[in-house]
Write a structure and sequence with these properties.
Two copies of one chain form a homodimer. The first copy, chain A, is of the alpha/beta class and about 230 residues long. Chain A has nine helices and ten strands. The first copy, chain A, has helices spanning about 15-30, 40-45, 50-60, 75-85, 100-105, 110-115, 145-150, 165-175, 200-230, and strands spanning about 35-40, 65, 70, 90-95, 115-125, 130-135, 135-140, 155-160, 180, 195-200. In chain A, strands 6-7-5-4-8-9-10 form a seven-stranded mixed sheet, sandwiched between helices. A three-stranded antiparallel sheet of chain A has the order 1-3-2. Chain A is globular, with a radius of gyration of 22 Å. The termini of chain A are far apart.
């Protein structure tokens, strides 16, 4: 039985879902600036997305816009937050691996603003165990079983070395954690239907940057050649 | 004059470009395993992308597949690396801000494998200046002008605090750097046509994970309700 057949959810493509956090960010900024209404044109200019794309995206959830009046920012924000599961709600997270990346993420206070609450950090390095980052204690991984018995954890953030990722993933899944946010440079796959994994590949975004730089460079070379052949 | 009009580049949509690093990763893994030929079906299963999507994507660049023979892995890898600008070529990068995120990225040796060479790290914290990460020295930001005079830098990775991002961006642009990879939680915008900026929003991916977790949860609640109404 699919999500859409039982009417629980409107059909939303993953392409649209992936843009929702962006809407969430911009709308949240507008709210904090006290802006309560915005035209799709203005939202479009701020976000760098076409107005027609915005209308199309938001129509997936029933619209929220009134012709000539623009969008009600608060209403739209609430709706998107609800779809993302973070309206008056948060996901509890733990970090496995308190190296540089783990600590950078633990320090990232924006996660709370987005509806993700860090409740524990785990590592094996005894030098840092007992320290706290933003009031969250770094505990030894040996304590993770007890911790998960006493605390509901929605998401484990995996910032362990590549070769330990699979083991760490199996461990947290065995403790009932359903969401894995994986930072090791692999596409982590597990044979469980109800486990959600998001693999973060930072360098993918860097390669896109490289591609665009190259395109600009090629364009310049081409323009120079044209200028030279014209003179 | 657009890129496509002068025949320099085939028309490749950004949606396809964004998938190229993924192809690059998988093909590079296949090569290192000694696999020289692969069917679109098998590649599809490994990558979790439909075979028809793969054929469609790769057709943008002229195909590379022979009906019944599959893809030549090395040829395809070379072609994608070339499109991404990293075939027998690399982009030079510097990191501005050697906090946890900057150090995590500096330690990330995969960047080199992808064609990005780290040549300098800059910070203002005198406690860490002079230290090295993977043989790259952390220098004081005061030295960045001289450094950029003596070294060609393609990309600056910005891992500075939010409030310093704009200033840091203007600085590196004034030094002739054309590519900015920005990790502060803002959509950095600059009024220069030839500057390429990729803004990394880590929590966007976390929010997508949250969305999927929520969908699974709703599906379960729905199934339980149906089971209860059937008994």
């Amino acid at each position: 039985m699919g999500l859409n057949e039982n009417g629980l959810n409107k059909k939303v493509s993953m392409a649209v879902v992936k843009r929702l956090p962006r809407y969430y960010r911009y709308l949240s900024d507008l709210l904090s600036m006290g802006i309560t209404r915005i035209s799709s044109k203005e939202l479009s200019q701020r976000m760098g997305i076409t107005a027609s794309q915005i209308r199309q995206d938001l129509n997936c959830f029933g619209g929220f816009g009134q012709q000539g009046y623009g969008y009600n920012v608060e209403l739209l924000f609430k709706e998107i937050a609800t779809i993302l599961g973070v309206y008056n709600n948060y996901f509890t997270t733990i970090i496995i691996g308190a190296g540089n990346m783990g600590q950078a993420l633990a320090n990232y206070e924006n996660f709370e603003k987005r509806g993700f609450k860090l409740i524990g950090i785990f590592d094996i390095n005894t030098d840092i165990i007992g320290k706290t980052i933003r009031n969250v204690e770094i505990m030894h991984v040996n304590e993770i079983d007890d911790f998960c018995k006493n605390n509901h954890v929605d998401i484990a953030i995996l910032t362990v070395p590549y070769q330990n990722t699979h083991e760490a993933a199996e461990k947290v899944v065995s403790l009932g954690i359903k969401g894995l946010w994986n930072f090791s440079a692999m596409d982590l796959k597990l044979p469980y239907e109800d486990i959600i994994i998001e693999n973060v590949h930072l360098s993918d975004s860097l390669m896109v940057l490289g591609y665009k730089l190259n395109e600009i460079k090629k364009l310049k070379v081409s323009e120079n050649n044209i200028n030279m052949s014209n003179t």
